[in-house]
Amino acid sequence: MITVEAQPFAFGFDPVSVALIVIDMQRDFIEPGGFGETLGNDISHMQRAIGPTKTLLELFRAAGWPVIHTRENHAADLGDCPPAKRERGNPSLRIGDDGPMGRILIRGEPGAEIIAECAAREGEIVIDKPGKGGFYATPLADTLSQLGTKSLVLAGVTTEVCVQTTMREANDRGFECLLIEEATESYFPAFKAATLDMIRAQGGIVGWTASLDAFHRAVRNTQQI
Ligand code: C5J
Q1: In angstroms, what is the span from residue 158 Cα to ligand 1's centroid?
Q2: Catalytic positions
Q3: Would you place residue 136 in the very low, low, confident or very high pLDDT band (cuts 50, 70, 90)?
Q4: What's the pLDDT band for 221 if we cut at 50, 70, 90?
Q5: Cβ atoms of residues 148 and 68 within 8 Å
Q6: C-alpha triplet 177, 115, 132: angle, nearest 5°
Q7: Of ligand 1's atoms, which has the minimum distance to the CA of residue 158?
Q8: Phi first, then psi: what are they for 111, rounded to 5°?
Q9: What distance in Å separates the CA atoms of residue 148 and residue 170, rounded to the nearest whole number?
Q10: Whose CA is nearest to atom 6 of ligand 1?
Q11: 63-99: per-residue pLDDT in tens?
Q12: Domain boundaries, the chain
């Protein structure tokens, strides 16, 4: 067992049954002209999550532990995008519209790809999801069952939307979930802080949070990484 100094208390996991899930580190959420910016958000906040997420990816790769990436995206005909999602809000460009990185949030378009710094390597699993949660309308549950995963380490964007939704879905399915604090970001710093608080409130009602340094220390002590 590896034990990480975490909140609300230490997080223990067995290295044979852990996986990293990196949520939606896509150009459309992080770079100018994408879905995030078209909704009126300040995308500069996203930059902070890139370095820590890359470090976490490197830790998992060095340890030989499974890495899963998700991408929020839709089919070109928008058959998997409910009007309620496409029509929500008052964006300058809607899902499926032509933007500077191709059609907004459409599978296969440049903007829907994972940013270069966090791109999936050969052998890593990439899950395309039409919703906020990683389990909705995806093979994620089967994938984790095949891997024998019991503990999930989470990273990615945005903290209170797709990361929190996926963490809640995973928690309901019986996974022990640890969110790495520096490896997630929101367009709204107050929402990130509130999400971290609500995850670990009530004795870890959704799971645990830990600093990247605490995770690194715990892994280094046991794995010589
Ligand atoms: C959003 C996400 N914020 N990946 N998606 O619409 O959090």
Answers
A1: 5
A2: 24, 129, 162
A3: very high
A4: confident
A5: no
A6: 45
A7: 7
A8: -65, -25
A9: 14
A10: 161
A11: 999 999 999 999 999 999 999 999 998 888 999 999 9
A12: 2-223
Q: What is the mean pLDDT of the chain?
A: 96
Residue with tokens 């995770």: 215
**Whose CA is closest to atom 5 on ligand 1?**
162
- The CATH H-level superfamily of 2-223 is Isochorismatase-like (3.40.50.850)
Mutate-to-test residue for ligand 1 from 88, 93, 162, highest number of ligand atoms within 8 A of CB:
162
Atom of ligand 1 nearest to the CA of 26: 4
Helix axis angle, 47-63 to 212-223, nearest 10°: 10
- Name every protein residue with a CB atom under 6 angstroms from any ligand 1 atom: 24, 29, 72, 157-158, 161-162
- Residue 137 tokens read as 């309308």
Q: How confident is the model at residue 225 (pLDDT cuts 50, 70, 90)?
A: low
Task: Return the best residue to mutate from 45, 158, 169, 187 for the ligand 1 pocket (most ligand atoms within 8 A of CB).
Answer: 158
In the block, tokens 């078209």 appear at: 38
| Per-residue b or e along 14-23, where b marks 16 or more CB atoms closer than 10 Å to that residue's CB | eeebbbbbbb
Q: Indicate if the pLDDT at residue 224 is higher than 70.
A: no
Is the Cα dihedral 141, 144, 146, 151 positive or negative?
A: negative
